[in-house]
Every structure is written in C-alpha cells, then in structure tokens.
Amino acid sequence: MKVGIYYFRTLYTQSAASLSVGKLSNKLLNNGYEVNLFLLNQSNIYDNIFNLKNVENLDCLIYKCNYKDFEFGIKFFKKIYEKYHKKIFLTGVFACLNKNRIEEKYSFLKIFNLLNDEDINLTFPYVATKIQKETVICNVDREIELNEHSKYINIELTNSCNKKCEFCHINLLNHTKIDKNIYELVNEIESLIKCNKRFFIFNDCIFWTGEQDNEKILEFCKEVKRRKLVFSFYIYLSLTPLIPDKLLKELKDIGLVRVFFGVENISSDFSNHYLKFLSTQNTERMIQKLNACKISYHIGFILFYKQVSYNSLLDNLNYLRTLGKLFRLGIIIEKLRILPHTKDACYLTENKDKIDMAYNYNFDDEKVEKIFNNLTHLFKNINIRNFEQFFNGISLAESLLIRYNKYDSYKKELNDYYNLKIDVNNKLYDIIIDIIEKDEINEDHINEIKLLYSASEINYTFFFKKLLTLDFDIFSMIPHGQETLNLW
Ligand code: SF4
What we know:
Layout: E1 2-8, H1 19-30, E2 34-40, H2 45-51, E3 60-64, H3 70-84, E4 87-91, H4 93-97, H5 99-105, E5 109-111, H6 117-123, E6 136-137, E7 140-141, H7 143-147, E8 152-155, H8 182-194, E9 199-202, H9 214-226, E10 232-237, H10 245-253, E11 256-264, H11 268-274, H12 280-292, E12 296-301, H13 310-323, H14 329-333, H15 366-379, H16 384-403, H17 411-438, H18 443-470, H19 472-475
Helix pairs in contact: 8-9, 9-10, 16-18, 17-18
C-alpha cells in the first residue's frame, strides 16, 4: 500500500519540513504502508509538477493543510481525485477544526487527526510488517530535511501546553502527548548532527514551563556537555514564570542563541478577554535577561483583535516602536484569527465560497477598522515576508557569529544594520501615525515604504554575501525565508 503525504511550507523562519508529517509517516511505516513525503509550493508550479510525477503509482494521498494553503490545495487534490480516482485524506489542525464544513462541501475526502495516534490507527490500520525507511531518524521521517542543503532542522521535546490562551488552537484538539526523555532527545540531536544539521529549532510550545522542569533541563545540558556535542538552538519560552538566569546561562553554554516569547498585547482588556496575563514589566525583564546573555529574541504580538479600541491600538503601536519591532509587518496586517469552537466564534459571518471564516469579522471600533484597511492596503506594496527576513535573518546571524567567536569580523556590517533598523523603525512609525492622523494613504506613503524596503534588501544582500563567502557554515544555519526548499 503506497501513500503520499503532501503539504505546503507554513513558517518561513523554520525548516520547510513539518514535524507532524514526519511523525505521521513513521506511524504509517510502522503499520506497513510505504510512504513518501512531498513539499508543494504555491509560487513555483514546477515543484508541483515534479511532485506529481509518480502520482499514478500511489494508492492514496494525504494532504496536510494549513489555512493559508487550503483554498489552493483543495482544488489541486479535487483534480487529482477526478483524474486518477485516488483516495484522498485531509489532515492538520485547520482541517480538524473545520471538519463538518469541509466534509459537507468536499465529500470526496476523509478527515483524520494526525495528532492523535488512535485516529491514525483507525484510519490506517495495520496492513503488513513494519517498512524500514532510511530517512527515519528517532521515529521521525526526515525525508524532506535530508534533501534540504541547509543546516537547520525542527525538533521537539514535548508537544503540550499548560496554558489556556483563548486565541490558540493547541488545546482545542485531542492530541497524543509526547514527552521524550532527555537521552532520547540527545540521541536524536546526535543522529541529526551526523546528517550535517547544526541549528535546532525546538517546536515545543514552552521549552521550560516552571521549576518542575529544572531537573530535566539541567540533565539535558549535562548530557550535551558529556557527549561534547556542538550545535546551536532556538527555543520558545513564556513570560510567566520567567526562566531563572542560572538556567538560561546553562542553556546558552550549550548553544542557545535565540528565544521566542509571546508578548501578545499590553492592554489589560486583551489579557482579560483572551486569558493571557502578561505585563510590560515581565517583557522588559525577559529582554534584559536575554541581552545580558547575548541571546537574540523574536516576539509574538497581536495588534488587531475584534475588541481593540483606538487608544489601546495606539498604545500598542507605541510599544512595538519602543521594542524596535515595527519591522514585523505581519503583526500589523494579520488580524487575530477567531477559531471555530471559541467564545468569539459567534461573531463570525458565514461565507459559502470559503471554508476559512476566522477573519470574517469587523472591529468594534470603526476607526480601528479604517486604520486596519489603510495599513493592509499600504503594505501590499511590498513583500512583507522578505522584509521581515531582512531583519530576522541578520539578527539570528549576529547570535550565531557571537556563538562561534566571529562577531569581530562583522562589527562594521552589524553597526550598519543597527542603524538601519533604528531608522526603519522610526520611519515606519511616522508613516503609520501620519496615515492614522490623515485617515488616508497617499503616494508619498507608498514611495517611502518602497524606499525602506529597498534599503533593507540591499543591506541584507551584502551582509549575506559576506557570510556566504567567509562563513558558509553559519550562512547555512539561517532559515532563508523563502517558500521553496533550500537547495542551493
Ligand atoms: S502559551 Fe502559547 S501554545 Fe500555550 S496556549 Fe498560550 S499561545 Fe498556545
């Protein structure tokens, strides 16, 4: 029985490979199915042509979808169903949360939950003895990553979260819990280092959740040191509670270079409504801790949500400017997704043409609605994903250069980068405030945005040209911010 699992890249700041797809493949192989993985592409038709080359030989296809690719992907798989009469399965968080609506509209497919072992075994029961596949490493099929020429790879220690943020999907699905022991994790890292991977992106919701994890994390650091493994890594942390300095230092000593944490929003209305209680004080303390260890950081932030008031929006824009994070334009143009089965889902209006309804709402404040429309219109003039990469890429490069004692050779370039970043941050703020005050966008705003884009692009190009020439090892550890597989 031959199965093809297809999916599109979702995050451009991580590996193209999906850990959940890699684990699903391993489970199907254990149940006797022959499995191959395929990365589709919304912007490169040739990737899709090659990925369909042997579709006739498959018995069934699984499409792991995301809300961003669903409308494109579903038409693609409908055509495959009509042309080749293959069984088609759909999976992924988006598919499971919208199961009833999807099955009603697209009756040719069957949906299952790839995060739940029971559901996988029910859908793909045991048919033959386990199939061996050489790309399986520690129970994850790494077929895509091993083709990728880059040295970054996604990994996880656990897959659950002890928080209950109202805007998050993590606790809405019944998923089988994973909690690896430290030796399994370090074995996995060691095996992946042998495959030439050097930068590990931990996908855990929160890598250290509180004091109860101290022992486990210290054991991890000890084991990495004992085996003398050299690598770098990136983790997700929470602001409540704050990780102790001592633990952060231990993690830094074994290669921690970057941390993600959700600031979300500084208004108390947001915290109360979405049950995520954070404070600017905690954010600032976290930033101080990370700066003291020379660890870079990436933040989660939600600017536009249904109930946001005009004044609160201005306060949060101001805060983003203070943090120097206005270049994260995705935060500005992506309003909060209201998920099915959450308390705000009642505000969503039905649209028969599209399955995804998460954006089908208006803001309570009309002034906010106008600002959102103006800003999304403005930023359509540039490629936002590239723009963010021009800053995220160099910020990660800086941490890696520090880690491998190469910072001094890039002092001038990094200085230019800091100056550019400050300039871009200030100018973006001025443009946004001018649009808010004038209540319109004009040609000057658009031209200024285009100028900021090209200055940032040129700076990035020459920085990465130097990195490519002098330090290819570090160059290849940095996610390249593109939809295509990294195959240089
Ligand atoms: S802490 Fe993060 S992963 Fe956990 S529920 Fe909140 S947003 Fe989701």
